[in-house]
Amino acid sequence: MSWYGNMPYNLCIVIVNYKTPQLLLDCLESLLPELEDNWVIAVVDNASNDNSVTIVENWILKHNQPDNIKLIRSPVNSGFSGGNNIGIKTVQADHYLLLNSDALVRKGAIQTMLNAISREKKVGLIAPRLEWLDGTPQESCFNYHTPISELIGSAKTGLITKIFKKFVVAQPVSEISRPYCWVSFACVMVKAEVFNAIGFLDEGYFMYFEDVEFCRRAKKAGWEIWQEPASHIVHLRGGSSPVKAQAKLRKRLPRYYYESRTRFFFQAYGRVGLLCANLLWELGWSIASFRSLLSPSYMPDTSEKQWRDILINFLNPLKPYIHPDNYGK
Fold it and tell me: Of 99, 118, 135, 294, which one has the greatest count of Cβ atoms within 10 A?
C-alpha cells in the first residue's frame, strides 16, 4: 500500500501519550493556533490505564475539535515505535510530524518545517531546533553511535574526547540549516514517501535508539536528514520518559534502554561491532573509575550497574524486549 500522494491530509501530527495527560493538554493548547485546514492531529493513548483518555476526550469536546483531533486507544503499551506506528497507519497523509507529549510548539514552527522539507526532494526527515522554555537550545542533532563513541561516553576524559573528536555523538547547536546522521525524534517531520520506501519504526525497540535506527535506514535508502533551526520547539526533557532524569542522577536505567542499545549495535555493526562497543565501554568505565579514585571532584558519566547492564541480550541481540509491565515477574 502506498502511503503518499493525493492523501486526505497534507500533515498528520502524531502524539503518543502514556500517563502524561497534563503535558499532552499543554502540547495540544500550543498546537491549536497553528493548525491548517488540511492538517490533523492523531493522539495515540498507549494503554495508559489511568484517566488520560477521559481527560483528552473532555478537552476535545470543550474546544470543539472532534474533526481535527483523532483519539486512538491502543489496547497495549507498545512503546515509542509501536505507538507512533499506530498513529501513522491510522491516518494517511503526505507528511507526518512525530511530536512528544512533553513538547510545546512555538508560533510558525511547524509551517517552517513543512516549507523546508517541501523544497528539497532528497530531504526525507527534518527536525526543528529543540529548546528549553527560556529559549536556551538543546543538543538534538547527532553523529551515529559507534564503538568509539562508547569509549568517549564512559571515559568522560578530555584527552580521549579530543583524540576521537569526530566520533562524538552529540553535535554543537547550529544556526544554519544542514544535514546530520540523525536527529531527535522528540519532534521530527517525515515524508510519507520515506515510510513507503523503508517501512515504519522498528517495533523491536520499546524506547530509545529507534530514532537513530530509523534515520540510518533512511540514509541508506538515499534520503537526507536535516535540521531547520528557524523552527523552534520547546522540549521539556524527561516529561515523557524517566531515562534522562535517572541518567542525570546516575541511577539504574530501565532494562529496555539496554535492550535497545544491544539491538542497535548488532543491527548496525554486527556481533563483532557489538562486542567492540561493549569492550570499549568497559575500558572507558575503567578509566573513569580510576580517575574518580584520584580526584574526589571527578564525577563519571555512568549509571548504577551500567557496567553489567550493557551485556543484556548480548548472546541474543534481537531477542524481544521484556515489557516494563513485566519487570520483576
Answer: 99
pTM of the model: 0.93
CB 104 within 8 A of CB 230: no
- Using the predicted structure, report yes or no on whether residue 248 has a pLDDT greater than 70: no
Phi and psi angles of residue 314, each rounded to the nearest 5 degrees, phi first: -60, -40
The set of cell numbers assigned to 189 is 517531520
Nearest-angstrom CA–CA distance, 59 and 135 = 28
Task: Give the length of the chain.
Answer: 329
Q: What DSSP character marks residue 152?
A: H
* CA distance to 13, 42, 56, 97, per residue, from 60 (Å): 15, 12, 6, 20
Closest alpha carbon to 228 in 134, 108, 135 = 108
Q: CA 39 to CA 130: how far, in whole Å?
A: 22
Task: Tell which wins on pLDDT, 238 or 227.
Answer: 227
- pLDDT computed for residue 241 by the predictor: 64
**CA atoms in the 13 A half-sphere facing the CB of 162:** 3
Go through the domains of the chain in sequence order and give each one's CATH number. Answer: 9-138+173-237 (3.90.550.10), 244-326 (no CATH)
Chain segment 4-32, per-residue pLDDT in tens: 555 689 999 999 999 999 999 999 999 99
Q: Are 218 and 201 in contact (CB under 8 A)?
A: no
Q: Is the dihedral of CA 61, 29, 84, 248 positive or negative?
A: negative
